[in-house]
Every structure is written in C-alpha cells, then in structure tokens.
Amino acid sequence: MPQIIEFPPRPYLGVRRTITMTTFHLVADRIGEIIGRLAERGTAPAGAPFLRYHSIDLAADRLEVSAGVPVPAPMDGGDDLYAATLPAGRYATTTHHGHPDQLVGTVESLLRWGREQGLEWDLTEKDGAEHWGCRLELYRTDPRVEPDMNNWDIDLQLRLT
C-alpha cells in the first residue's frame, strides 16, 4: 500500500545523461563505479543507490536520468560525477518486488493511487515531455548478494507539491 513520507534534503553523487529506453545501461551501469569512487574516499553510501528521472518523453524515446548514490554529507564530484541534493518534501512511495523491467505496472498503480487521493505531483508537462521535480527508483537489493533481479526490492518515491 502506498504511503506519504516526508524526507529531508538528501545529498548524493551522481552522473546525468540523456538516454533512450535501449541505452539505459549508459546511466544505470555507473552506479557501481560511483560506489567504488566513494570507497576510494573512505565514504560509505548513506542509502540505496537510485535512478532519478528528470524528464521523460516516451513519444520521442528520450529520457534525462541520473544515477546517484546518497552520501552522508555534501561532497565534490570530480570527473563527470556531480554533487547534488534530492529535494526535501513529501513523497508518495511504494515498494516493487521483482525485476526492474516490471516496474511499469507499479509506477502506474502509484500514479493511479495518487490521483484517487487527490495528490498533486511535482511535475510539469511541456512539449509532450514530463519534467519531474523528483522521481526516484531506489535499488535496495545489493546485486552482489542477490544477483537474481526477480528477487530485487525497489522503492519508488515521487515528490508531491
């Protein structure tokens, strides 16, 4: 069952790219590298790694997405990594258990639930694209521990206005 949770600002290190549905790996595959860079600096992640959707234009098959790893305190990125902060606020959240390819149904259910509750997303639409204030998929399952993606737990967090 979805719920609404208030989150504080959450600093992270990330990489941001404009991709298509078939080039998702160009962003998602960088999560391990970001975690490795944190380890080199002696810093442990402060939470689950995530994908952040900045804009989605399915008709044009164009998405602007960040892969990020929360950090305990703001820090410099270096190279093509950047430091940023997930905005504080109220988020509608739910958990998906299963393969990431099956997330679409869970996202649709969360969006439908939000409409039924009369919630307003931190979302603007322009030229056929959705521009999200903060839309996240947090990957709580460590693939080194559970390599079977069908057994992964993924939290969805969509910021409300």
Automatic annotation (TrEMBL):
**SMART domains given in the database record:** AraC_E_bind
Residue ranges constituting the AraC effector-binding domain according to the UniProt record: 1-161
Give the superkingdom in one word. Bacteria
Short name of any one Pfam family annotated for the protein: GyrI-like
Q: How is this protein named in the record?
A: GyrI-like domain-containing protein
- Could you tell me which species this protein originates from? Nonomuraea maheshkhaliensis
